[in-house]
Amino acid sequence: MKNRFLTIIYVIFCFILMIGLWNIRESKEGIPVLNYHQINPTEKNPLTVPTSDFAAQMKYLEENGYHTISPDELQDFLVDGKELPEKPILITFDDGYADNYEYAYPILKEHNMKATIFLVSDFMGRFENYLTWDKVYEMSENQIYIGSHTLSHFELTPLDQAELVNQLVGGKLAVEWKTFKFCEYIAYPGGFYHQMVLSEVKKAGYKGGFTVYNDYVRQGDDPYTINRIAIFGSQHFVMPRFWIRLHMAPVVGRLERFRSKLIDAGYPTLAELIFIP
Q1: Contact 67, 51 (CB under 8 A)
Q2: Structure confidence at residue 274 (pLDDT)
Q3: What is the pLDDT of residues 105-131, one digit of tens each?
Q4: Residue 16 covered by a domain
Q5: What is the pTM of this model?
Q6: Is residue 144 included in any domain, yes or no?
Q7: Which residues cross the membrane (predicted)?
Q8: Overall domain count for the chain
């Protein structure tokens, strides 16, 4: 039994080493798209990055020569092969939380950084912890692109066609009505999509869509299934975890998918041995 356990550990180690070596090649070509949710100093949950940690992460990006880009710049690179600045990076936020304006926005301005916020438009001005439209408009005038996270944050894949169109078009029109700018990019709630979703997204007039598939973006990728790197809140080893996710996204993504397969195959204890930074 002990030998079998050691063999399994050895196989896992070799697997991690193999994908780590693979990452060295891939990381030179990929563009990181970071995915945040809430930024504030009080809440303690995986979707909330403490303000001080977010500030440290943005400082790291600036000091290490990263240049923030917009969804349009990424789209032009993917579709037309247009050149991007050295070390490009796209910073995104999902849902449209009020703390994005209160805490993240001043830090982004301090470092002269662009960012993108994907809004759940029905939540704006309706719930206390979400943005108001006047703040959305202010940010949209100052290097913050506003995209859609649908009308009501429903998972899109179970919806019938009529409700799917309502969620896609309604969210898009709400952003355009309130910002006086075209809304041409969407982040799929939960990252879920299928062929009908992609088809209706294109019909609705979107130029691209963002997932939560943990990997870099590379030339030739489908602009309607853009990968993103999830950045979570943590109480321990904050900057090392951020560094690993930023620089080793393919490794983290493969580890996540490998662990999920172990769980699906009925090996939850074994899956727990795989550390995901």
Answers
A1: no
A2: 85
A3: 999 999 999 999 999 999 999 999 999
A4: no
A5: 0.90
A6: yes
A7: 6-24
A8: 1
